Structure formats: C-alpha cells, structure tokens
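Notes from hallway chat w/ T.B., transcribed later so I don't forget. T.B. wanted the structure written out for a chain they're using in a teaching module, and asked if we could keep both sequence and structure tokens in one place. Agreed to drop them here.
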Amino acid sequence: MSGGDRTARRAVVVGRVQGVGFRWAAREEARARGVHGWVRNLADGRVEAWCEGAPAAVAGFLAWLEQGPPAARVTAVHAAEVDPTGADGFDVRRGAP
C-alpha cells in the first residue's frame, strides 16, 4: 500500500477501558480489519492507539473504539490525523509511558 493509499490516526480512548481486555480486543479487531499499529495503556487510565491502513479500515476501527469490548464503558475517543509510519502488524504494548 503506498503512502497515498494509507491513512493514520492516533486515538486516545477515555472511560472504563483498563482491566476489561480492551487492548487485546482492539488487537483482534485491528487485525481482522487489516489495520496496523499498536495499542497501550496510559498511566492516567486511558488507552492510546496508533492505527494506520486503508482509510475505510481505519474509520471502521475508530468506530469500534467508540464501543470497545463488552465490559468497557467508553465515554470519549479523541482521534487526530497523523502521518503513517509504515507500521506492519498490530501489537499490544506493555507499560504506560
């Protein structure tokens, strides 16, 4: 996929999103959609995700983040357009920055 065919977003998910399997569910959702990047917990209880891929796939993944897995209670998703990095695969990152 060339740079022009790929879009990227950095998203921060707010709500009850830690301790509910959010990162693992996000990884599975991203992989199913062909989205690349990573997801991690933040020290303040939010979850951060970097996602890139085909515009429709990224849009679908961002829509999924607004709900998350069944035990999550998402109150907001703040997403910003960023430059694609060429990420390959989708990983769960450990530890909060």
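Follow-up for T.B.: Helices lie at 22-33, 55-65. Might be a good example for the class.
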